Structure formats: structure tokens, C-alpha cells
Amino acid sequence: MSKVKVAINGYGTIGKRVADAVSLQDDMEIVGVSKTRPNFEASIAVDKGYAVYAPAEKVDSMKKGGISAAGTVEDMVESADIVVDCTPGGIGEKNKPLYEKAGVKAIWQGGEDHELAGVSFNASANYEEALGEDFVRVVSCNTTGLSRVIYPVDQEYGVKKVRVTLMRRAADPNDVKKGPINAIVPNPITLPSHHGPDIKTVMPHIDIATTAVKLPTTLMHVHTVNMELEKDCSTDDVKELFEKQSRIMLIEKGIGSTAEIMELGRDLGRPRGDMWENCVWKDSVTMYEGELYFFQGIHQESIVIPDNVDAIRAMMELESDGAKSIAKTNKTMGI
Amino acid sequence: MSKVKVAINGYGTIGKRVADAVSLQDDMEIVGVSKTRPNFEASIAVDKGYAVYAPAEKVDSMKKGGISAAGTVEDMVESADIVVDCTPGGIGEKNKPLYEKAGVKAIWQGGEDHELAGVSFNASANYEEALGEDFVRVVSCNTTGLSRVIYPVDQEYGVKKVRVTLMRRAADPNDVKKGPINAIVPNPITLPSHHGPDIKTVMPHIDIATTAVKLPTTLMHVHTVNMELEKDCSTDDVKELFEKQSRIMLIEKGIGSTAEIMELGRDLGRPRGDMWENCVWKDSVTMYEGELYFFQGIHQESIVIPDNVDAIRAMMELESDGAKSIAKTNKTMGI
């Protein structure tokens, strides 16, 4: 069987990770990645053996910077079966005509609106909705993290209402331009935040209210999650349920902060120190006065990566069973 | 009428502010403040005209450091009608025998246990409980901030349940020893946190669940507050209710973060830039699906100061009506 040809449009924080994860699969391969600037990431892409493409108007400046483009982004798209668009939020939308013209399938990230793709995807919650689809949006890191915990709890106990405070890292570790460096920023100030409705693009029946702040940290988001459930259950029931989920890691053994979770990722030898799983603090999982509470850490740079791989598999109909795709992706990535 | 004689045991972040606030009142005066080290704060206390006392074993080292103590802490306590103990959490407890021996009243801060004093105090919520009492504990900054919003909402609409995420500044601005500098620290990891039960020391009938994290910021705490209410009300009803509370400030006009609130405090000419009020973001106040949500900023260094002044007035029976004490304290401090 020939491998599915995958192009990565936008080789940044998410794009470079998706490229590496796709390369680990036996049913898909990277045919090219696109960059707009000849920076260290472009050099490393070349060193890794990826064909680096550039927008037509950037081919010259890339060459001056020492990167000989394999062709234009249009060339790359033409050579692919499916494009994973990892351009910055709002830019991806503008690329849709390009993909339509070339007749290729496309995946966008959570920075784009649901309506652009029509299907919002989380591998654990709604794999089957992406089967054979041409356009799919893999939801954001926060929505991915919430989907992975809400879905199994809803399946097992029924979710009556979810309330979440999203404490967001304000900038990624490599981003030296953004703040704050010493403040808490309610964002948005008007409540509830847009994160709740985004969950409904994956699971429309979930009743959820979210509030969000930006914080002076770069490592991970942290969610405080509160759920009212339909059925009775115990703290241990929920811990056992989470333990069974392959993309939830229960955090214990003295790990008390997001910094220590990131150190765990490095000590585990993960590429770039990534933590692809929801990191749920085991001791925080508590049924209190009939309601579920817990803390989880979300590694914003990497949590959506396995879901991007699964989305490719669903859209290309390489695998009709979500559980099997998840198992395959997990095994290859080391989850 | 002679003024009530107030001693401040522990002239640090809280103690120096209480001393200044007491000095503004016409019914009480500072008879002394205590320091253990001859640092810049001790020098400024002397410059301000406060009699600076020291523990007997520290009198010599204070003198070597250029501060001639007016006497020992025991001397200071003997000269007072009431002591405001602003020593670090856990230390205040050890001073109780000293106050009992001298036959003086004492106020402790929120770092001590409720049981030490027997009465936990917030001027807005339970002024009358401190009337004539010998020992009172002014609750912590977080509990003060929550009491001030829960009490009026409970009076007006009945509070069925409160859920709060406390996002705590990890260290005060002058504290260079504590972290984290780049992490989110769930603290405590086990849920719910101790903050909920602390509210019950002021308002025992309130059903509340709290979660808390420590953050890499020094300026203020931020609470996301969710309340289920007994009676129907609108977003505007709650905004109007909060507007009527003299120790709640509705934050608007482009103030989007704790950093900008602190800048407001400085621009208002407040001593040390303090914000003694709960800082509730006006646009965040929302009734959503029948539940109340809002964000509030809590200036941990100063929010309890007016309540300490009111506690003195209640314990010394200078004023039996809490509203009148609050009005007097507010007027003198400029709230």
C-alpha cells in the first residue's frame, strides 16, 4: 500500500511536531513542509531531510538565507493527498481556495473557526465524524484537553454541567515578544469565555461555562475543572476511569507544578520534552458534595499532535475505528 | 475622650500599613511598633515618629544597627490597650500568653487559626461579633475579599453555593526569595482547598468549594467566582449591588489586568499605591444560565487594613454600629 502523502503548510510550533509524528507512521509520509523565513527551524528541516517549500514571493529571500526551496507552496500542495495547515490562527482560512483548487484534503488547527472546516475533531471524542471528510479542524490545545476528560466522564456517568477556569500560559517558551511578565490578565473579561462554546463543536450536548486568564508563564496551561454528573460515582471511580484513558497521564510522585511536569517530559526522553497527554494531578481528583473537581496541565505546544495524526487517518479512511488509530499513533509516538 | 492605645507587634507588610491607618483615626493612636531587625523599615518607623520596640534579646543588635529601641516588646504590650499582632503566620499564636499576662486585647491576622481567637472577623460581614471581644482574628486577604462579595449577595439574593478558583500571587513585591518564576503551582493539590472552610469561620452557613494555585506574579490575587443563588436576579442587579458596597470598586475604563489596577492605585495617590477595595471587573459580572460569574482582584498587601481598624473599634466598643465604623474608617483612609 502506498503511503498517504502529507504536506505541512507552516513549519512552526505545531507544524514541526506534526511533521515528526507523521514521519513515524507506516501509512503516511511527509512530502514537504513550508517556511517563509530561512531561520534555524528551516535549516533543521533541511537537515532532517524534509523538502522545504516557500511561498513564490519568498523563494529568493529563502535562497539568500541559504535555503534552496524545493518549490512553491502551490507545488507542495499539488504533490500532496492532504495538507496539515499549521499557519498562525486566521491565516489558515485564506489558504482554503488553494486547497480546493488543488483538490486536496486539508486539516486546520484550533485557531480557525469551526465553520471553515465544518467538522471539529478530537480523536478521543468524535473520530468517526472525520471519516472521509475533505476538511477538518483539529480543535485547540484547551479544547483538546477538555474533550479528552469530558468525553469519558460523560460516557460513563453523564455530564450535567461543566465549569472550568482556564489558566493560560501567555506565550510559548520561544516567544520573547509577548507579556505579561508580572500580572494576571482576565481574558476575555466578559464571561463566559469562548472556550465553552468551542467544546460544543465537538460535543454539542455538553453544558459548559468557562472563564479564562492569561498568566506570566510559558510552560503549560492549567485547568481547574468542576463537573456535575448525572450518576453517582466515587473519587476512585473517576481515577480508575482516567487511568484507562491512553491520552490522560495521572501525575503523582511529588510533581507539584507545571515546571516539574515539563522536567518529567525531558527525563522521559520525549522529543522536545513534549507531553502529549492531559496531565491530571491524581491527588486533585475529588468527588466533593456530589461534584467532581480536578486540576490538569495542558502542554499547549504538543497536546494536539497525536490528534492531527489521527485526523489524517480518519479523513483518508486508512482506519475506520478511532480506538485502533489512537492505539497505532500512541505506539509509534511513545505515548 | 482619651484615645485607645494600639501597639503593632510586627512592623512588616501588614503591620506598617495598620500603623499608618490607625494613625489617621481620631479615636485611637499608635503607642509603639515592634521590629526584630534594624532595617530600612525600622528607620522609616523612627522617622515617622513611631516608638520602635524590640524583643529583649534583639535590643542590642537593634542598637548596633542604629535603632535605639524604646523598650522591649513586653514593655510595648504593657503600655497598650490592644495589640495588633502582624507577625508572620504561626508566630502570632506564640504571643498569646504575653497578651493574656498583660491583660490586653489582641487582634491576629489570617495566618493564624480561627481557634486561637475564637472570633474570625470581616467588617462588612460580622462586625457585631467582635463587639467587646478580647481576642479576634481578622481573616486573610482571600477570605476578606470573598466575604465582602458573598455577604451582600447572600443578604440580597441568598447564596445556594459558591465555587471559586483562587489564583494567588506567589510572593509579595518585596520578596526576592520565593518562586515560582515560570510555572503554575496547584496549591494545595488536594481539593477542595482550605479557603472555603475559612469563609465558614465568618459565615458558617455558606456552602463553598475552592481551588487554589500559586502563580509567578507579585501584584494581586485574582478570584474567578461562581455563585448559585436562591432568588432570580439580573446582571445589572448584581452590578448595582456591588456599586453600593463601599469596599468594592468596579473596575472598568480599559483596565485589563492586575498590573493596571496597581497603576491606578499609584495614580490615585494612594499610600504605597494600595488598593484596599475588592477590585471587581465590571464587565465580568454576568448572570449566565441562572448563575453568577465574575473576576475580582485582591491586593494582598492592603485589603485587610481597614478591617483591622474596624476590629479595634468593635473590640474596644468605640462604635457598636458596623456601618458607622466602616464609614469612619473609609473617610479617614480615603476609600
Automatic annotation (TrEMBL), chains A, B:
Signal peptide: none annotated. The active site is at residue 141. Keywords: Cytoplasm, Glycolysis, NAD, NADP, Oxidoreductase. Its EC number is 1.2.1.59. NAD(+) binds at residues 13-14, 111, 169, 300. Residues 4-141 form the Glyceraldehyde 3-phosphate dehydrogenase NAD(P) binding domain. SUPFAM superfamilies: Glyceraldehyde-3-phosphate dehydrogenase-like, C-terminal domain (SSF55347), NAD(P)-binding Rossmann-fold domains (SSF51735). One of its GO terms (molecular function) is 4-hydroxy-tetrahydrodipicolinate reductase. GO terms for biological process: glycolytic process; lysine biosynthetic process via diaminopimelate. One of its GO terms (cellular component) is cytoplasm. D-glyceraldehyde 3-phosphate binds at residues 140-142, 195-196. The keyword Lipid metabolism does not apply. Pfam families: DapB_N (PF01113), Gp_dh_C (PF02800). It comes from the Archaea. The keyword Oxidoreductase applies. Gene3D superfamilies: Dihydrodipicolinate Reductase, domain 2, NAD(P)-binding Rossmann-like Domain. It is found in: Cytoplasm. InterPro entries: DapB_N (IPR000846), GlycerAld/Erythrose_P_DH (IPR020831), GlycerAld_3-P_DH_AS (IPR020830), GlycerAld_3-P_DH_cat (IPR020829), GlycerAld_3-P_DH_NAD(P)-bd (IPR020828), Glyceraldehyde-3-P_DH_2_arc (IPR006436), NAD(P)-bd_dom_sf (IPR036291). Pathway: Carbohydrate degradation; glycolysis; pyruvate from D-glyceraldehyde 3-phosphate: step 1/5. Belongs to the glyceraldehyde-3-phosphate dehydrogenase family. Homotetramer. This is Glyceraldehyde-3-phosphate dehydrogenase. The gene is gap.
